[in-house]
Amino acid sequence: MNVLTLKTSGRLKATQIYAQKNNEIYPSDIKKLLSNNIETVYATKISRLAYLYIMFVEKNAAGRPVNQIASQLVNEDEGIIRGDAVIARTNNFGTNSKIFTLEDSEAKDIAERISKITKTKIEVAFK
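^ that's the sequence the OP posted. Answer follows.
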């Protein structure tokens, strides 16, 4: 199973991650892909009623380059996203929320939605 890594260069890459029961992953798995100092941001512009997508981004990444695409996926009040971002799915925003991996078809759908938002052809790179 995969999560999507959105690089500052604009590249969208499916990153294999080992999921637990029911495709669940833990924040510690995400920290291995970014840094230990991460925050969760709701990706409002790619989420739907049935699926809530979140991005994990580096907190206090002032020295990192701006991630133009990730910045377009959140509401303006979230500000600018700097550094790489990891996209995954969640079941809710409450205390007992869980993080899940993405199906390959779901990753392709997300890439299509990002393409529409950015008006640029974005494709997912699978290994």
